[in-house]
TrEMBL record:
The lineage of its organism: Bacteria, Pseudomonadati, Pseudomonadota, Betaproteobacteria, Neisseriales. Keywords: Nitrogen fixation. GO terms for biological process: nitrogen fixation. The gene is cowN. This is N(2)-fixation sustaining protein CowN. It comes from the Bacteria. Is required to sustain N(2)-dependent growth in the presence of low levels of carbon monoxide (CO). Probably acts by protecting the N(2) fixation ability of the nitrogenase complex, which is inactivated in the presence of CO. Belongs to the CowN family. Transmembrane segments: none annotated.
């Protein structure tokens, strides 16, 4: 039995992942993560051969152009490591949300 929330607040509905993905902007959330990656690797000390390859792959430079969600999902550990290395807590939160809702 659910107890009422104080002040007439309503509990937000849980995302409908794995069923319809209704109300989950997976593409937009993936673009937001890509923007974070791009901001990090724009700084020379944060860029390396892997990130150059990653961005080239994003543009379709080594085959068909993958969508951002697929590319992030395929390299999620490297993306997480980038954000952890540079202590980007906001990007880590967004990455966890993307992983839980869309991957």
């Amino acid at each position: 039995m659910n107890s009422p929330l104080p002040c007439g607040c309503r509990q937000a509905a849980a995302p409908d992942r794995y069923i319809s993905f209704k109300d989950i902007d997976c593409d937009g959330n993936a673009r937001r993560i890509m923007d974070c990656i791009a901001q990090h690797i724009a700084l020379p000390e944060r860029n390396n051969a892997f990130w150059e390859y990653f961005m080239k792959k994003r543009e379709g430079g080594s085959g068909p152009r993958p969508d951002d969600l697929f590319l992030i999902h395929s390299n999620i550990n490297q993306v997480r490591e980038l954000f952890e290395t540079w202590d980007d807590q906001q990007a880590l939160e967004w990455l966890l949300q993307l992983e839980e809702e869309c991957c």
